[in-house]
Amino acid sequence: MRSLAALGVILLLATGAGAATWSVERDGSGDFATIQPALDAAVAGDTILIGPGEYTEAIAIRPPGWADDIQSYADVRCDDLTIIGAGAEITVIGPPTYEANAEGDPAGLSYGGGRALTISDLGIRNCYAMFVVGTVFMDRCHFTNNMRGLVWEPRGPGGWVRDSVFETTQYIFDAESFEIGYGGLGSDIVLERYRFGIFCVVRAVDGMVIRDSDLTGMHIYSGGRVQVERCRAGGANSGIVLSMGSGNFCSINDSEVQDPLAALMVTESSPGGNFSVHNSRLTGGSYGVLWLQRFSGPSEVHGCDLIKGSGPVVRCDANGTMVTHDLRNNYWGTTDEEAIRSWIIDRSDAPNIGATVLFSPFAGQSVPTEATSWGGLKALFR
Fold first, then answer.
1. Cα–Cα distance, 195 to 192 (Å, whole number)
2. What's the DSSP call for residue 366?
3. Which residue, 139, 151, 142, 152, is CA-closest to 187?
C-alpha cells in the first residue's frame, strides 16, 4: 500500500511539473508580444500572464456547433488554462470602439473546450461577448460595453464570478450583463461581490447563488433556480422576472428589490414559477410589488417591507391556476386592513382570478432605506 501511495505522489508531482507559465508583454520583454500566439502555445494546466496594454488583434474562429466564423480577440485552444492580467483597468482585450454589429461577432475571449477556464484581473470591452463552454472561475474582471458580457454554457457543476463589474457606458440596444446556462447542465454556480449595470439572464441552472452584489434586473428562464442573498436589484423595468419555461424559482433573503414596473414578476410563460422571500425590502411600481400572472405557482413573502408604488402591492391575473400566495407577517406601511385589502388584486376581486392572497395587517415598522445590513430585520417584526 505504501508503494502505491508513493507512486500516486510521484505521478501527481510529475503532472504538476509539466505546467508552464507564459508571459505576454507589449514591449517584447515576455515570451510573446500579443495574446493569440501564447494561447496557441499553451497546453492543459498552463498559465498565461498578460502584462499591461490594449490588445486589439483579432482572428477568425468557429465556435463549437456554429455554421460561420466569428472574430475573437483571444481564442483559448486548450483545457484547464489560467489567464491572469495585470489588472482589469490595465490589461484590456478588445477593439477601441464598439464593433458588435452581428450576433456573436466579435468575441473578446472564446473557449469551447467544455472543461475549465480560470481568468482574473482582465478587462474585456466593445465586443459581443466572452463565450465559454465549460466551467468558469473568474475574479476581478471588468466588462465594458459588451452586447452580452459573459455567455457561459456550463458543462457540469461548479464555477464562480467574483469581485467583477459588468457595465455599459454607451447605449447598446438589448444589451445584457450575462447569459449563464444552456441545456440544463449547470449547477452550484456562485456569483458574489459583483456589479451588473444592465440586466442578466440565468437559463436552466439548477442551483445558482448570488450574494453581496448589485444587479440591474434578472430574468430566470427554463427551470432555473436562483438564491439571492444580501443583494440590491432592479431599476430597469425588469426587477427579478421568472419567464420562458416551467419550474422557475427564486429565493430572496436580506435584500432590496425595486423596479418602476414590478419588483418581482412571474409571467404566464412560467407555469409553476414562484418566489420565496424573507427579511427583504420590496418596492413596487405601476404593476405592483408582485405581479403574479396566470399559472404562477404559490409564492411566499414573510418578514418583509412591502412598499407600494403607483399600482397595487399584489396583482394576480385572471384565468389562471387556483393557488394561494402567503403574504402574512409583513410590514405594509399601515395596519388598516381595508387599505391593504384594496392593494391586492386576487380572487376576492373577481371570480375568474384563480389566485388567493393571504395577508395580515402586521404593525412592525419600516426598514430604514439607508440600511446596508439586514441581519436584524426580523427583530423589527416581533
1. 9
2. P
3. 152
Q: Contact at 8 Å (CB) between 105 and 124?
A: no
- For residue 40, give the H/E element and its range: helix 35-41
Give mean pLDDT, residues 369-378.
38
Structure-block grid coordinates of residue 60: 477568425
| Interval 213-238: pLDDT, tens | 998 899 999 999 999 999 999 866 66
Q: 305 near 366, Cβ under 8 Å?
A: yes
Q: Are 355 and 346 in contact (CB under 8 A)?
A: yes
146: nearest Cα among 175, 180, 105:
175
Contacts of 13 (CB under 8 A, 6+ apart): none
**DSSP label of 381:** G
C-alpha cell at 262: 414590478
The rounded distance, in Å, linking the Cα atoms of 275 and 347 is 19
Q: Counting beta carbons within 10 angstroms of the beta carbon of residue 229, is it exposed (0 to 12), middle (13 to 18) or buried (19 or more)?
A: middle
CA 173 – CA 198 distance, rounded (Å):
11
86-116 pLDDT, tens per residue? 999 999 999 999 998 777 889 999 999 999 9
For residue 344, give the nearest of 335, 355, 329 by alpha carbon.
355
Note whether 190 and 182 are within 8 A (CB): no
Q: Which residues of 68-86 are buried (b: 16+ CB within 10 A; e: fewer)?
A: eebbbbbbbbbebbbbbbb
Distance in angstroms (rounded) separating the CA atoms of residues 191 and 170: 25
Nearest to 264 by CA among 331, 211, 311, 333: 311
C-alpha separations of 42 from 32, 83, 120 in Å = 12, 11, 17
DSSP-based three-state secondary structure for 382: coil
Cell 452584489 belongs to residue: 213
pTM above 0.70, yes or no: yes
Instruction: Report the distance separating Cα 170 and Cα 95, nearest Å.
Output: 15
Where on the phi/psi map is residue 126: left (φ > 0), alpha (ψ -120 to 50), or beta?
left
The answer to whether the beta carbons of residues 124 and 94 sit under 8 Å apart is yes
